[in-house]
Structure formats: structure tokens, C-alpha cells
Design brief:
It is found in: Membrane. With about 525 residues, this protein is of the alpha+beta class. Helices cover about 50% and strands about 20% of the residues. Among the domains are: about 120 residues, no CATH class; about 150 residues, Alpha-Beta Plaits (2-Layer Sandwich). Helix 1 crosses helix 5 and helix 1 runs parallel beside helix 8. It is globular, with a radius of gyration of 32 Å.
Length: about 525
């Protein structure tokens, strides 16, 4: 009987130990799943933010280069009799410090095979002495380099026929057909064919058509192209490394098959996790580029991805400890009560620790929500929050028969500040502009940063159009005050487009109208506002 009772207690104690191990393992695994899911969600949100910012950075860089080429095309088209010294004067302020990755700026003219001698004589007489044109055999249409400003130590290609290569030819044809910036497919520049293969970079050509007679009553006449060959790695890698903050590897490639890789920014050890890989397609110069972003070990370390494994190890250790304690407790009732108290205290500590982990995860979720709806540089609302507030304001004001005004603000002179004082100075200017916009508006109004040097303002509860105009005048005045940047003064102004909501106002339509009015203000001389429909 005694032996039977002892065996029964032994079996009961063993069953209790097994039950504790099974239960502890289940709880530990559940906690691991919760923490791991939170870590995955946080890392994914961080990668989404990097992907969006880097796609915008690539687009902004191409836009800045395109604006420079369009300005050059306009300046050259304004010459009644362009000569070599005119071209040298117009391009004198350009170099590699302003146009990273650019090899040169060239003026390209079209010609037929029969007209090649006349073209050669014409440009020799206008300063391109010694010009020798080399038409591509087998082609009737040619595109000759007649004027060039070189930014590096590479050899000049004056006289070369760009029609010998399909990639630049494609960019020239698209630019002429559409009358705007076009970018070629990736290829090796003619001037780089003489360097070792390992030193060559995948490159593209930016092309903008040149017309005479623009802005006048004279007919618009196509004269040629402004062309800028750009080496991909030198062009984008510094920007991608800066914006990626060493946390991600970025690859920019043609969005075609097979894709040609333009540039790669690889700051550290790559983490092979396809679930965190992000891809964004950007349309630049009438081409599609694929931006691929992958995490590095630095990003994984910064997002505390090891917390799940720590939770699993801690839970397993705790479960094993509880199993041992339960086995010991089964041997003596007196010791069991004491051991139960100790196990209960340890369990409470574990619960508190898990509660702290959950609280940290909740704090991170709140921070991610803030990052998702606010611009990280200025703290202003971003596009998503701006669009939500505009949609809500239009709906509520339509019911109350009140007006909503939308102001699009684009900074004048911001590019010059960046070029003269650097990007950090540009960031200081953007933060100062954001602070001035916040101070100058009512609490019910919304100010957002759209990206780059563009801002947007929602004015709610207006009774008449003059209220929006007065706000625009106050913004113009506030932004003209000089901005101190480490002892240097930076000055910017603003071009503002105003649109007022109608009875059936639509958010997308208002945004397009305000954007168009802003461009009208910029083309009218800048530092002013234009009201849509006025």
C-alpha cells in the first residue's frame, strides 16, 4: 500500500512536471510569435520609408539635372546666331561639383549625309575650328556633336555622329518627338571605350531639344539638342548612400528585361531576407527605372530584430526552470509551498518583462504612425496626411456651405542655396521655411511638405476669396526674410498657386489646379501668387 501510494505520488509529480513543460513551451512559443510579428512589422515599415524616400531622391536628382538642361536649351535657343564662344559663355558655370557624374555638355545638330559638308563649314565659321564631321556609314540621318564643354579629363567627341549608337539615338528621337527631356537606355559612353572594362560605368544620355523663337511671335524652329552624358555610379551613388544612411543597399536599374544596372550603393553586409526587399518604379526622362532596396546588417541591428530570439530563449529557460522546480516541489509538500512562491515571483517578473516589451512595441508602433504621416525633415504633414485632411475638409465644408482654399508653395532660389552652401544648408532652409509657415497660419489650417522644396497649405472655414489672398501675401512676406545658415545668409522667395473649392470640389482636381497656378506664378516672374481661374 505504501509503495503503491509512493508510486502514485511519483506518477502524479511526473505528470505535473510534463504538464508544466508543455504549457510553458506553448506560452513561450506564443510570446515568440507575438514579438517576432512585431519586429517583422516594424522592419517592414522602416524599409517602406527608406524605399519611398530613395525613390523620391532619384526622381528629384533627375529633375534637377533636367531643369539645368532645359535652362541651357532655352539660353541657346535665344541666340540669334549661336557661336562657339556663346556656347562656352552659357555653359561656363557648369562643372562636376554641380552636375556629379556628368562627363560633358554638348550641342548636337541634325544633318543628312548630303548636307554634312555644309554643316561642317557652317560650324567651322562659328568658332568650332578644325571641326571634322564623321557620318556613320549606311545611315542617311545623322546627329553631330559640334560644340562641347568637357567636365573631366576624357577626350572630346566633337565631330562624332551619335547616330552610330542606338541608345543615344533613341533619346534624341524621343526628346524631339515630345519636345522635352528624354533619357537613353544604359550603355557605355563612346569616350569611355578606351578605358579598362572594369573601370567603365553603365551610363545614360540626357537629351533636351533646342528651339529658336520660343517666347516670341516667330515660328518655333528645331535647331538641335543639348546632350549630357552621365555615368550612373557617379551620378546617383552619393545621393543613395546619404539618403540610405548606411542601413540599406540600393540598386537602380532599367525597368526592362534584361535590366541594365545603372548604379549600386552597398554600404555594408547585405542581409538575405526577400520579405524586406522593396522595389519602387520611377518614371524619369520618359523612361522607367527600377529602384531595389535591400536591408543590411546595420538596419537589422537598429530594429532590434533579435528580441524575438531572446524571448524564445528566455521563455525556454523559464519553462525548463519551472519543470525542474515542479519536480522538486512534488517531493515535499513543505518545500513545494516555498518553491511555488519563488516560481510565482519569477513568473510575475517574466510577465512584467513581457509587458515592458509589449509597451516598447506599442511605442514603436506610435512612432511609426507619426513617421507615416509626417515629413521626417520638417515635421510637417506629408502627402498622405495632407490628402486625408483635404478630402475631409472638402466634405465637411460642402455641408456647411463654406469654402476651402488650397495654396501650393514652391520655393524660388532654393536650388541656388543648395548649390552655393550645400545640402545641409538646404535642409536648414527647409526647416526654417516650415517653421515660418506654421507660425503664420491658424491652428485649424494644415501645412504639408510635398517633397523637395514644395509645400501645400489648406485654409479652412473661409468666407471669401480675399482671405486666401491675404494669407498668400503674408506667406510671401514671411519667406523673404533672410535665413542664417552657420553665419551665411540664405534668401529664398516663393511662387504660390491658389485655388478655392467649389460646390462639387474634388481633392485631386484642386491639387492639379493649384499646382498649375503655382507654375503660372513661377513663369510670371516668381515671388508672387496666382489664383486659379483669375
Amino acid at each position: 500500500m505504501v509503495e503503491r501510494g509512493r508510486n502514485r505520488r511519483r506518477r502524479s509529480g511526473l505528470a505535473l512536471v510534463v504538464a508544466v513543460l508543455v504549457t510553458g513551451s506553448a506560452v513561450t512559443w506564443a510570446a515568440y510569435d507575438v514579438v517576432e510579428a512585431g519586429e517583422d512589422r516594424y522592419s517592414a515599415q522602416v524599409m517602406d520609408r527608406y524605399a519611398d524616400e530613395l525613390a523620391i531622391a532619384v526622381t528629384d536628382r533627375v529633375v534637377r539635372y533636367g531643369e539645368t538642361l532645359r535652362d541651357l536649351a532655352a539660353a541657346i535657343g535665344a541666340q540669334s546666331d549661336l557661336r562657339g564662344d556663346d556656347f562656352a559663355r552659357i555653359t561656363a558655370g557648369l562643372d562636376n561639383s554641380r552636375l556629379a557624374g556628368a562627363a560633358s555638355i554638348s550641342f548636337i545638330v541634325p544633318s543628312t549625309t548630303a548636307g554634312t559638308p555644309a554643316v561642317q563649314a557652317y560650324w567651322r565659321a562659328r568658332g568650332s575650328t578644325g571641326l571634322a564631321l564623321h557620318p556613320t556609314p549606311g545611315r542617311s540621318e545623322h546627329a553631330f556633336v559640334v560644340l562641347e564643354r568637357i567636365f573631366d579629363n576624357s577626350a572630346t567627341i566633337v565631330g562624332i555622329d551619335l547616330a552610330q549608337r542606338p541608345q543615344p539615338t533613341e533619346a534624341l528621337e524621343v526628346a524631339r518627338a515630345n519636345g522635352t527631356l528624354a533619357i537613353s537606355p544604359a550603355f557605355t559612353l563612346l569616350r569611355d571605350e578606351g578605358i579598362p572594362a572594369l573601370s567603365r560605368q553603365a551610363s545614360v544620355v540626357f537629351a533636351v531639344p533646342v528651339y529658336t523663337g520660343l517666347g516670341s511671335t516667330r515660328p518655333h524652329v528645331f535647331e538641335g539638342w543639348i546632350v549630357m552624358p552621365v555615368r550612373g555610379q557617379d551620378f546617383l551613388s552619393p545621393t543613395l548612400l546619404e539618403r540610405g544612411q548606411g542601413a540599406v543597399r540600393v540598386e537602380v536599374a532599367e525597368a526592362t528585361a534584361p535590366a541594365a544596372v545603372l548604379t549600386t550603393a552597398n554600404p555594408g553586409r547585405l542581409v538575405r531576407d526577400e520579405s524586406l526587399t522593396r522595389r519602387r518604379t520611377v518614371v524619369v526622362g520618359q523612361r522607367r527605372w527600377l529602384v531595389t532596396i535591400r536591408p543590411t546588417a546595420r538596419l537589422i541591428a537598429a530594429t532590434d530584430r533579435g528580441m524575438g530570439r531572446f524571448t524564445l530563449a528566455a521563455g525556454a529557460a523559464l519553462t525548463l526552470m519551472l519543470g525542474v522546480l515542479t519536480g522538486v516541489l512534488a517531493g515535499s509538500r513543505g518545500r513545494a509551498l516555498q518553491q511555488v512562491d519563488e516560481a510565482t515571483a519569477a513568473l510575475r517578473l517574466d510577465i512584467a518583462r513581457r509587458e515592458r516589451v509589449e509597451a516598447q512595441l506599442r511605442e514603436r508602433e506610435l512612432e511609426l504612425q507619426r513617421l507615416a504621416f509626417h515629413d521626417p525633415l520638417t515635421g510637417l504633414a506629408n502627402r498622405t496626411l495632407f490628402y486625408d485632411r483635404l478630402t475631409h475638409a472638402l466634405a465637411t465644408h460642402a455641408r456647411a456651405e463654406r469654402m476651402v482654399a488650397l495654396l501650393f508653395v514652391d520655393l524660388d532660389g532654393f536650388k541656388e542655396v543648395n548649390d552655393r552652401l550645400g545640402h545641409q544648408a538646404g535642409d536648414t532652409v527647409l526647416r526654417t521655411v516650415a517653421d515660418r509657415l506654421r507660425v503664420g497660419l491658424r491652428a485649424v489650417d494644415t501645412v504639408a511638405r510635398f517633397g523637395g522644396d514644395e509645400f501645400a497649405i489648406i485654409l479652412e472655414g473661409l468666407s471669401a476669396a480675399p482671405d486666401a489672398r491675404r494669407t498668400a501675401e503674408r506667406v510671401l512676406a514671411d519667406l523673404q526674410a533672410p535665413i542664417d545658415v552657420d553665419g551665411a545668409q540664405a534668401r529664398v522667395s516663393a511662387s504660390i498657386g491658389i485655388v478655392l473649392s467649389g460646390a462639387d470640389a474634388d481633392a485631386d482636381e484642386l491639387i492639379r489646379e493649384a499646382d498649375a497656378a503655382m507654375y503660372t506664378a513661377k513663369h510670371a516672374g516668381k515671388n508672387r501668387y496666382v489664383e486659379s481661374g483669375a
